[in-house]
Specification:
The protein has about 160 residues and is an all-alpha fold. Helix 1 packs antiparallel against helix 3 and helix 2 runs antiparallel to helix 3. It is elongated, with a radius of gyration of 25 Å.
Length: about 160
């Protein structure tokens, strides 16, 4: 099975939803157990310092394992199965043979045909626009790598 992100929804539900729910629940319970062990440490420090360090080591291990399992479970819950499909075109496809697919992809395309032509012929990149306003300039100054994020994330 392929897990490619296409633009056309095939209407197939997420087959990993149940497994992801169970794994997330297990990760949450394990994380809570690790947190409980760490919360017992302050009262043990005064009475038995050696046992308190054991609780810290075991608590950190259990908590980190629980968070890792929780993360994997949430990724399974959020994963969607699309199957093998053609990725979305950059601009609308005007080919007569592809008119059906072009109609479905139209809401998802990133550029107009004229913009792509201008980018290719003028050797420009219209995707990266100059920040407008002081807030946008401040954000781009503080986070310079923001410029290289994918288009939907950046905007």
């Amino acid at each position: 099975m392929a897990y490619e992100h296409g633009s056309i929804d095939l209407g197939i539900p997420n087959p990993f939803k149940f497994e992801g729910t169970v794994r997330s629940a297990r990760g949450l319970i394990t994380s809570l157990l690790g947190l409980y062990l760490l919360l017992k440490v302050p009262e043990l420090v005064k009475q038995q310092p050696a046992q308190a360090w054991t609780y810290v080591a075991v608590g950190v291990g259990v908590l980190s394992y629980g968070l890792a399992v929780l993360g994997r479970g949430l990724m399974q819950l959020m994963r969607f199965y699309v199957g093998r499909s053609v990725p979305t075109s950059l601009a609308e496809n005007h080919n007569v043979a592809e008119s059906d697919t072009a109609r479905q992809e139209k809401p998802f395309v990133a550029y107009r045909a004229q913009s792509l032509l201008q980018m290719l012929e003028g050797q420009k990149n219209l995707t990266f626009k100059e920040p407008q306003g002081w807030i946008a300039r401040l954000i781009h100054t503080l986070f310079p790598r923001l410029t290289y994020l994918p288009y939907p994330v950046r905007n």
